[in-house]
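Sequence only, no structure available. Ideas?
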Amino acid sequence: LIGIVKYHTKLVHRAAKAWVVRYEGDQNGALVELLTTLFEACGVSYRMEEEPLDEIDVDDVVLNLVARAKEGPLEDNFGSKQRELCNFRDNLTTFWDTIVLESQNGPLFDRIFMEKCMDYVIALSCTPPRV
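Reply:
I predicted one. Tokens follow.
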């Protein structure tokens, strides 16, 4: 997903809609994919295991992300001067807007989707080191 958000503006809507369809078929796998995209958008390459998300400790994942960020390399998708990343911020916004729009009649309110996203966003935003 991050490759589409970074480089393929015309495919962002379609990718978000396809993600919602995947989520409806495999919640855990789709959430792992979405969270991985979130981490990569923040600049850290990190792959979560495809074990049930209820068995993964959010704090452990965030500590691993911080450790990886300290080790480097980080990718600055938002401040990059690379021409091909000039639409990154808009593409990421469009991606999330489309997911919310496409999910409003189901996944958005199934408790799991919002709870897991909020858990990770809050944990990342409360992490003391800002690398």
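The chain has a mean pLDDT of 82.
Hope that gets you unstuck.
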